[in-house]
Amino acid sequence: MTAKGIEITEVNIHPIRNKQTDNPLEAFVRIVLNGQFVVNSIKVVNGKFGLFVSYPREFSKKENKGYNFCFPITKGLQEYMSERILNEYRLSVAG
Length: 95
Known about the structure:
Helix content: 10-25%
């Protein structure tokens, strides 16, 4: 499956080991797009309404807010990436 020509060609899941019960972070993820572009530091987070994908951010103490480094800007791409990443995460923890 692709989203307007963008395909996730590789997904690497790195589950958090020795996880503390109050920590919502479940895993770090690395993806490759179209075999040519890598995105590191994607997170799988267990939030109030279940698992979701969080993209790399930088937090500015001066401005007291965070900025995403990269993220999908269309709903179709966001849904495709989230579905693919969460499916791979579920497979990795089930196996």
